[in-house]
Amino acid sequence: MGTTVSRSTDSGHGGSYREGGAQLYVSLKMENFRIEGDLVPHVYGSVPIIGSWDPSKALSMERELASMWELSFVVPPDHEALDFKFLLKPKYGATPCVVEEGPNRLLTGGLLEGDARAALFKLTEEEEVLECQVFIKADIVSPLDLAASWRAYQENLMPSRVRGIPDVSINAAPDGAVEDGSGTHLELDLEHYIIPAPSASSTSYLANRTETPTALFQIGNPWKSEVPFSNSENSNSSINGSSFTIDIASYIKESEVDQTRLVPPPTMVESKSVGTFSSLQNKEGQKGLFVDRGVGSPRLVKSASANTLTTNLNLDNEAKTMPEAAGAVAAAAVADRMHAPKEDRRLAIVLVGLPARGKTFTAAKLTRYLRWLGHETKHFNVGKYRRLKHGTNQSADFFRADNPEGMEARDEVAALAMEDMLAWMHDGGKVGIFDATNSTRKRRTMLMKMAEGKCKVIFLETICNDERIIERNIRLKIQQSPDYAEEPDYEAGLRDFKERLVNYEKVYEPVQEGSYIKMIDMVSGQGGQLQVNNISGFLPGRIVFFLVNTHLTPRPILLTRHGESLHNVRGRIGGDTVLSEAGELYSKKLANFIEKRLKSEKTASIWTSTLQRTILTASPIVGFPKIQWRALDEINSGVCDGMTYEEIKKNMPEEYESRKKDKLRYRYPRGESYLDVIQRLEPVIIELERQRAPVVVISHQAVLRALYAYFADRPLREVPEIEVPLHTIIEIQMGVTGVEEKRYKLMDSTVPH
Ligand SMILES: Nc1ncnc2c1ncn2[C@@H]1O[C@H](COP(=O)(O)OP(=O)(O)O)[C@@H](O)[C@H]1O
Ligand SMILES: O=P(O)(O)OC[C@H]1O[C@@](CO)(OP(=O)(O)O)[C@@H](O)[C@@H]1O
What we know:
Keywords: ATP-binding, Nucleotide-binding. One of its GO terms (molecular function) is ATP binding. One of its GO terms (cellular component) is cytosol. InterPro entries: 6Pfruct_kin, 6Phosfructo_kin, Carb-bd-like_fold, CBM20, His_Pase_superF_clade-1, His_PPase_superfam, Ig-like_fold, P-loop_NTPase. The protein has an eight-stranded mixed β-sheet with strand order 13-29-28-30-27-31-32-14, with helices on both faces. Helix 9 crosses helix 10. The N terminus is likely disordered. The chain is 27% helix and 22% strand. The chain starts with a strand and ends in an 8-residue tail after the last strand. By secondary structure, the protein is an alpha+beta fold. The chain has 18 helices and 32 strands.
């Protein structure tokens, strides 16, 4: 038995690895079949992360395979040399504690000094010696490597695990049609396979699904309402105990005289990337710098179940709701909370635009995206406030700029909605989306003043110059808006709405002030432009990136799990097994279904994961390019991979219970959590938004739950329980009214999962 030592020489960092903040990444493995009972291999040594020579603070290695134990950690940059030793002791006890024989092992500048040797443990007085093979790998990694997302590290750049199948492939159509298992051609009547979709149709009027006005239900003068707010620097506020009074009338008045203050010169767009270092505390209460790389880091990061990941930064109450350790989101939030000015930690996206320009549509979509990514977001629709306070039957006159009562009433409801939004942010809300026309500079100035010192404001203006699209939008509005629900005469409604539009057009002032994003003719996904001014920061950057990729071209997205796999039959999770007989039959039925469903489409693509069961499910599909995405791989169940749920319950009861308690945040040791999965799926969502042709996604249960939650606008907490049965296709129809869903069940599944 011996020891293997390696040090990456091609890391490209050159010179001293301390330069540029590069750090030492150490991966240790120990192999022996005879380590049993309570004894678990540990590592302890000269740096705090491995206990500073205190055996009780030694880091425990994790079982990777039956006979292989593993531990990786990153040494903080202020430690030149690392002395360490292996020891055996119980995971949660101090004795017995058997330290390996021989001198300390010394790593200097990433190189192991002295002889490579096996670890020898004297287990008994009678000199019984246990010899373990040891593998030591040290690597110099730059902070960027560590901080970058799962995509960046070599583990994820490995080629597909399914040998012989290229990442992109296309099967030519064979002579004759796809056959089913019995050899006869499947004549599919698609309608025959439709089953009811579980979620309510999302075509209902989007504004109805926005926040319920709170300010409207407060007693007293609506122009003077109490908002619990601590910031008292605003000249329009007066302190009253811990609450603070906003005098809305004075905001409006003041904004009439002071309109030039908010016009900074246009600046370049700045996009910042952030690292993912976070100071974490482990179960035993030891402090150490573990590196939270979010997803896909099974080799790099010490096992970390959800309950071991608690930030010890004493941040504000946002920390309660922030999905910890959710990769980029958590990293950005930590960085923002530590470095950004207080008001920049909350973001108000204020919509601007004439009626029927897609403001509510865009606001709802952005809300859905940000919530899905884990940012607490709410959509405040001023129209809803107006309808509640003034009824649904206001005529076009109400919207005339020379109608003082109408103007006052409209400003009032806008201010009330803004007030609700700011109060919500004060209670921990992160992103408020403020949806109204806000089409004059005076109104925007009022909103800016209200938000001063409390949140960052970005205007999001939707502009459309295509008369045909405007006409279509107007007709959609008449059909959907509660403003015309009681108007029996469609043409009269149309005339009134057009008159309302003219009233707005007369006083419309496009945004030229503050930070803004302008979406100009961005409906088709081709042409059009997105202009940005004075935008910086992680979240605004993501928002711009999201918006630039969205469009309204109608197309279906078909989501399906792979056909039943051998592991499904045995009730085992994860793995990379082939299909069962039933699974193979499904793959043929699916090919048949897709052939028929996408018959009239000029192009389409089939996306699979890199696991055999999805690739095999796609294999009978012909004529469409197939693309393998590693991001579509099933949730990584780490050390539980290949086990049944019963086995996990029996052998790792703590893990089983932790998952049961919080399935969304629970991270399998050396694997992923649902939140991790969501983070790694973000590029998939962006690409699904950007595609204009149909896409068929053949993936896995956990991944499809996460994708489906985005389209169906389901809250994160529900994600791990969403039903995604085998042998069923979920069709998401993207289009001008939003997202609609249909389900087709092609065959029964023989197993519950
Ligand atoms: N960027 C856009 N430009 C033009 N029309 C859009 C845009 N985004 C969505 N739409 C379309 O506009 C229709 C009406 O949108 P809605 O959000 O109700 O308008 P608004 O809130 O501006 O009155 C939507 O159903 C959608 O089809
Ligand atoms: O999060 P839970 O409910 O465990 O579901 C995810 C599990 O679904 C499974 C089946 O049990 O997906 P898949 O069918 O893709 O194999 C497991 O591999 C995976 O771990």
